[in-house]
Amino acid sequence: MYVAAKGGEKAIRNAHKLLAKRRRGNENLPSITLEQIAGQLSLAVDRVMAEGSLYDTNLAALAIKQARGDLIEAIFLIRAFRTTLPRFGNSRPLDTGEMLVRRRVSATFKDLPGGQLLGPTFDYTHRLLDTSLAAPDAYGEVYDQADPVPAMSGEADPAEKMPRVTDLIGAEGLIEASPDEDGAEPFDITRAPVSFPVDRATRLQTLARGDEGYLLALGYSTQRGYARSHPFVGEIRFGDVEVVIDVPELGFAVSIGDVQITECQMVNQFKGSAEQPPQFTRGYGLVFGQCERKAMSMALVERALRWAELGEEPGAPAQDEEFVLSHCDNVQATGFVEHLKLPHYVDFQAELDLVRRMRREASEKSPADEMKEAAE
Amino acid sequence: MPQNSKKDSFDNEMPARQAALATLARARRDELESMLGRLSPLPAASELRPAEVGLVMLRGRTGGDGAPFNLGEATVSRAAIRIEGGATGFGYRLGRDIAAARHGALIDALWQDEARRAAVEAALAPVRARLAAEAGEVRAETAATKVDFFTLMRGED
Fold it and tell me: Given an 8 Å threshold on Cβ–Cβ distance, is B69 in contact with A205?
């Protein structure tokens, strides 16, 4: 029987109780703490903050615990939470040039001022499972015969500046400049509906909260030839930047804390014109937390979306602004995909009636008609 | 509008007050509590408006140095506290610790009292030292991972 859904309250309540029980797991083991999640699963926390579009490590850790480690569910929880809070205002733009750098590499310049700093990276690891980590309280310390007591302390000059690589090659005019500030407030996709085409600021905001896997696939597609742009990592940097806001009642700017972000400057092949000799072009990625794969993917896709401005041929999936931006939000996407499992009994009843009628009409065709068709 | 002499002292004091507010925003709640302990007895004070948690939209710049765009939001707590017959202090900090924002606002109000300022600055010193030590540790650890990549000669010369 197909009827509208009503009732089921008791089943739903019990399902939620069962969910809580499964989430808790073996009760002979201690419940995982938010500090443990934030401290030991920090890259999962970073991803939830980036795609939840809300910087708050403690909240992201709570969301991961509540969602049993389902990161898209956790991102959904964070997005729902942010709608409950008032907006105090906007920060001054974060200055990535003044970052307390925890990692900074360039694939294009080996000798850059401030140096190449690997930081805490999976790069150059052997990707072999480390069974020693299975023991409780295991540190996973790297044993090295050549350096049995690793000195975790290098010479660092706090006054040393780490200019962005793009500023270095930009000085020679070999790379296009960033778009100038025109004094206008940047569009905010959380405040106004988006209509296409959109400007670069809108693309960047949308991509910054976009799904990592989706952007990874699209970025990869550009490398495989769908809108090829011959990219190099000009620079990736990760670290702490200061958040500064203007407080009207004080009449001056106040530094309210630090956030960790990853920035990727992708340097791509040339663009020149009659007026402007050839220059490298750029794609930009900026993401909350240590989300390097996402920052790189974002920069590749951001560059591909600039095809019209750079006079390139369109046609590849990653260049289709409306398609790329309309489908990169995993909360919207999961909402629409997953709603299919909710009761659709009335809709489906209508479809059933329709298919029955079509079948009836097909069978009511006169035998003479069928003979005629068979003869043809 | 404040009179000129007041305005001058506002301009002169502003960098020092900004520095104090930046430290208060990064102080842990237990550090703020021990600061208030050091600064007691505390004057009577009341909330100018209820302390609250909200959001600030963090902005980035296209290419790192270009036109701004909206990156995503962060939680922020804020409080405003007036000392009876005295100054109003403000507390703004990332995160959702309203009590810490209140402590920060009260300490900012105390800082504005010239008779108490030296004591407030002295109480801020351990927090500043901790923050500097943590940043120094990050720099030293990171510097230990500094590499010198070299490209192999192809034998052209």
Answer: yes
